[in-house]
Amino acid sequence: QLAGIRVANEQVGKLLAGVIPQLFEGLTYSQLIRSIIDQQGIPEEQILTTFGRLLAVLQYPHVVCSSEDVTSSQIMHIASWENETIDVELVKFDSAVFAAPFLLSKESTESEPNEDKIVEHFDKYKSFFAGAVSKENPYGFGYKLPDRVQLEYIAVKLDDVSSIVIPPTHQEKEEYYQKNIKRFTVSVPSDPNDPNSPQTEKIKSYAEVASIISQGLLQDKINSRAERILQEAKTFTEAGLEDTDIEPEKLSSKQFPASSWR
């Protein structure tokens, strides 16, 4: 503003009204602004004022640079560059005229590439993009494709979760033992000194399985807490879209990061 550049809120609103539907696949200005106000608690006027200041900052260097003095030599150079022309004479040759007699001649040692040659050629240039000329690829062959899939996900490390989970108490382990006592029943010989004696069922004592029960209950708590953390993250991420007509599944990766849920 001190430099004499200011963008009014009305202009900012008109600009955003035209740009937002293009950037957010049909989302209107009022829908997006209402979502920001509900989620962040920022008034609409403050949003427009802040964006207007950003536009003013972008316009300032443009104004300063456009008012720079230009010499006559620069003007003549620009004019000559814009009016420069090139005369081109083209003579078209059909490659078949040269290739066919050579391939068909008895003296030719070359032939059409077979499957092995094609595979060899592909393997040689598969790491290059088409048209990428270099010392290793002087003719610009290339079969590498740009990345077409972008995966974004939320990961929760169970080791980190374990530090905030309370280990199972003695009472919890006792209750689990009593409710699942059949799981700790094993078959053993009726005569310990005779392995071939008839089998009989024996229930392991609590002391024998206490550590196993403790580890199992602790792991269940860790998994449950991790699931809850992921669900809370998903709910928080989608909270700003509840009042709109947009389905999160149809948003692009730039508008709403895709997440991988367990």
Describe the overall structure.
The radius of gyration is 37 Å and the shape is flat. It is mostly helical and 262 residues long. Helix 1 packs across helix 3 and helix 8 (170-179) packs across helix 9. It folds into three domains: 9-67, no CATH class; 114-146, no CATH class; 158-250, no CATH class. The protein has helices at residues 9-23, 29-40, 44-66, 72-83, 95-104, 115-125, 158-162, 170-179, 206-238; strands at 185-189, 199-203. Residues 237-262 are annotated as: Disordered. Residues 253-262 have a biased composition (Polar residues).
Share of residues in helices = 40-55%
Specify the number of helices: 9
Total E-strand runs: 2
- Report Rg: 37 Å
Total separate domains: 3
Q: How would you classify the helix and strand content by structural class?
A: mainly alpha
Instruction: Enumerate the spans where pLDDT stays under 50 for 5 or more consecutive residues.
Output: 256-262
N→C terminal distance: 51 Å
Tertiary shape: flat
Strand order within the widest beta sheet: 1-2
Strand content bin:
under 5%
Largest sheet: 2 strands, antiparallel
What integer is the average pLDDT?
A: 81
Order of helices and strands: HHHHHHHHEEH
Region (Disordered): 237-262
Biased composition (Polar residues): 253-262
Key attributes of the depicted protein:
single chain, 262 residues, mainly alpha, 3 domains, two-stranded antiparallel sheet, 4% strand, disordered C terminus
